[in-house]
Amino acid sequence: MEKKERYERYKYLMGLTAWDIGSFKDKSFTIVVNDGPNGLRKPVLSEFEHQEETIVSVCMPTISALASSFDKKLCYEDGMYLAKECKAHNTNILLAPGVNIKHNVFCGRNFEYFSEDPFLAGRLAACYINGLEDNNVGACIKHFAVNSQEHARLINSQEVSLRALNEIYLRNFKYALKYSSPTSIMTSYNRVNGEYVNESEYLLQNKIRKEYNFKGFICSDWGAVNDKGKAIKTGMNMEMPISSRSNEYLDKDYNIKFTDEDLIKRDEELYEAIKKFKGSKKEDVNLDELHQKAIEFANETLILAKNEKEYLPFKNNEKILVIGYFANHSRYVGGGSGWVNAYKKETFNEVLKNHNVNYDFILGYDENKCLITKDELLKTKANKYDKVVLFLGKYQNDECEGSDSKTISLRPFQIETLDLVKEVFNDFLTIIITGSIASCKHIYENSTSLIINYLSGEGQSEALYNNIYGLHNPCGRLAETWIDDIKQNPYLSNFLTRDDYYTYCDDDIYVGYRYYDLNKNGFILPFGYGLSYTTFAYDNFKITHDNKYINVSLDIKNIGNYDGSEIIQVYVGKENSNIYRPIKELKGFEKLFIKKGLKETMNIVIDIDDIKAYKEETDSFALEDGIYKIYVAKNTNDIIYEQEIKLNGEIFEKHLKPTPLKRKEIDKDYTLNTPGGALLYNQTFKDFVTKNNINIDINTFDEKYWDIDSTPLRNLDGRLNMTYEQLEELVKVLNNEEHDLSKHKNFDYKIQKELKERNII
């Protein structure tokens, strides 16, 4: 291939702008990709310097809220209505959904992910994807794979056994691709077992292309490419956004790391995936219609966690007192790429006013401190309120792309406010606004009623009103286990070490409820948990099976006083297995709306392929021969029926406990993946800058660039005004000096502490 053609092809191996991509095979059209798991986050202008201002878009429930619905039809419709808005703004691919396993409870992006369970995440994601793809908008499923933390996300390696990798962290993607066909897959920033995903033959070819039969194109997360030459060879079709690597820099890997055949194949894969968008036309959208859908969807996501004394639902003629910052500061979405410039931003107080509710409001606390005293509350109590509502929750910077939390506890001053409310009013409803789990034992024990509100979009406040006043019966379920203290799961403390280089998944396959089923210590709200205003009775259980499917059916009667939806979960377990296993795993679920007094039959079909276990020796899944238990349940702790069945399969070799993960040493020498923090207070680096006349104010470098701590050198070319060639030369110079990179482990906290003491930040 002539150099001229290669250079032209290089242009189409990356974004043409921040959000536009095209194919060398047909340069006559380009397509647009934009962020938006729960809305369309589209910059008004596509140029890099104009990324802050985004269009107004209807904000649908976050992925974490959709998961709480356990509702396949809702997830499909959510994708369908998101497609309408995409087409109205000429967006061809929505960079969504995020299906990563919620392994790390501190991860700042957990609000963008479905669940701790791969089956629930994969099945709901497939419905969401189909809603987009059936309406001529592409989905880009992300972040493949094992994206469990934001800290040092471009450097960190998630160390995980092959069995846990395949049964937990890849199976969510496998399920999604089994039941849908997304246009694209986005690779994650992090490494997996020491290897960047873009460079992993095992992950991109053996798994995505061959085993999962993926036909779309593979793109990088923004700035996630390490070795582009190797990534081209391995299977990455598109680096996003525009690469700062020059054609000359990339071409030095030609016929060494990649060939003509690789270049041609990567473009053909891309073209075959995007050619369906040729001739796509803009369509009008009714934002008011979408807003009503946002309310309907949010209705299905709220989780009633407690309701003593039938405190809920409220009556229209009751006078209520509302307390808490989040009642008049509506927080319905997380930060970063998942943020949406919502069409309507109604607070709970505004909704009460719109519905002519007789209420008073006390702020109670703000973002920093408690603002009330017991005496002030006692004076307020004289107004004789019938009901009290207390809002608690996490703030925007607690759950945001790019950073992880350091705790699952709410702010102490919020708990101080709760204690004051308990002392004065005794009975009250607490609403927790969050995108992920929060310590809530104290809140649960001291509240009369409790609603857990995952960030459910711009319809959230109206949905809260509907559910509190009984216009809708709460039916959400927890898609992740809620614990009160990370000491209940010792593996979680691993994430608090903030190791830039390695995070060890020592819990192996025992993630989420799989661990807590074996370790029922401390306060737990179990996976799948959620209450209702009505009561259901169950009868006529039937479980049959053949070689392909297990069929579960039961009759459900609504014997309470409210219409409502019931969600039934089916788990499968195997005792006396030759391999280590969880007690049970989710393999089926359905949701059914039943009017009061009526009975309906629910049918749940389980694919036997989905209950197979991973065999490392063959890198494949197989069914172990023997007796299996089928658990029909309301949640992992509430089994309403169980039955044994015999399945014919293979005899597995004995392997009764996980093999401990080997610890790895960090690189002793500088590389392009060394954290930028190693340049701070580094005289060799400063001498290099001066010698090469690089445009940086080296005298103020340590103060101005403290935030580069966990960014690899390869991603600092723009900030340091250096080319890739200069970065490589810098690495050589640094390695000629005596150094000990181990001292830079967790260097970021030392830097921040020093800068805070000097009042720089």
Secondary-structure class:
alpha/beta
Rg, alpha carbons: 27 Å
* Overall spatial form: globular
| Helix percentage | 25-40%
Spans where pLDDT lies below 50 across 5 or more residues: none
Average pLDDT reading: 95
**Relative strand content:** 15-25%
Tally of DSSP β-strands:
27
Most strands sheet? 6 strands, mixed
Q: Distance between termini?
A: 53 Å
In spatial order, strands of the major sheet run 1-2-3-4-6-9
- Tally of DSSP helical segments: 22
Defining key terms:
single chain; 761 residues; six-stranded mixed beta sheet; globular
Structural account:
The chain is an alpha/beta fold. The protein has 22 helices and 27 strands. It has a 6-stranded mixed sheet. Strands 10-15-14-13-11-12 form a 6-stranded mixed sheet, with helices on both faces. A 4-stranded mixed sheet has the order 8-7-5-17, with no helix packed on it. It is globular. The relative contact order is 0.11. The model has no long low-confidence stretch (mean pLDDT 95).
Structure summary:
By secondary structure, the protein is of the alpha/beta class.
Strand and helix map with partners:
Layout: H1 3-11, E1 20-23, E2 26-35, H2 63-69, H3 72-88, E3 93-95, H4 118-133, E4 138-144, E5 157-159, H5 162-169, H6 171-179, E6 184-187, E7 191-192, E8 195-196, H7 201-211, E9 217-220, H8 228-234, H9 247-251, H10 260-274, H11 287-299, E10 303-307, E11 320-323, H12 325-328, H13 348-354, E12 359-362, H14 374-381, E13 387-393, H15 412-425, E14 429-434, H16 441-446, E15 449-454, H17 460-468, E16 482-483, E17 502-504, H18 513-516, E18 524-525, E19 536-545, E20 549-558, E21 564-573, E22 585-594, E23 599-607, E24 613-615, E25 620-622, E26 626-635, E27 638-647, H19 683-691, H20 701-704, H21 724-735, H22 747-757
Parallel strand pairs: 2-3, 3-4, 4-6, 5-7, 5-17, 6-9, 11-12, 11-13, 13-14, 14-15
Antiparallel strand pairs: 1-2, 7-8, 10-15, 16-18, 19-20, 20-23, 21-22, 21-26, 24-25, 26-27
